[in-house]
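request received
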Amino acid sequence: MSTATFAQWLVSALIVIGGSFALIGSWGLVRLPSLMERLHGPTKATTLGLGALLVASVAWFHLARGTWTTHELLVSVFLFMTAPISANMIAKVHLHRLRQHEPTAPAGPAGTPAPPPGGVDWATHEVPHRGTPGDFVGD
Amino acid sequence: MIEGALAFGFAALGLALAMNLWRLFKGPGVADRILALDTMVINAIGLIVLIGIASDSATAFEAALLLAMVGFVGTVAYAKFLLRGDIIE
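response:
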């Protein structure tokens, strides 16, 4: 198998995998019943699909055009670093809204989170209280 | 063969963007809308990467990199505003 044929096979397979993962992730965003479940689709499937597309781009420009580009690797490194942070922030907004009893947001299969022990509340809005798990000063 | 794969990729990402748009309009919570916008940014980056492969130009990746950075900052700004009532304290 020549290098050009191999490059075509590899890049085609990676593009199909990436497109399928992006589609499945967005389908999960539409289909799943509550936000905590909907977070799974985009943050895992879509990011993985985009990773496959970026690898396809690197392979295409390296194998078929002979140029080595690192922009795609930068994009993937940046996305894989930021996707968990943005998912965490969105989950915190969801918890905060649940605590404020926003009527339109379904809580999810686990329901509204139980209050933490010690007579304090989850720190989605306030700074962590002394002696709670988020309080690094009191450790 | 690569043309077929690119057509499939464009179709899949276009459909994914349409589904994100549906979730953006439907809601129901404000966190769902932030998540839909975040996913739309990720799918748009995938579309730009596919356009870069299809048109054989490396200039598309500057746009992809910019969108990756600005999309994250936008998501965090929305979430911070809802959590704290302020973006930069």
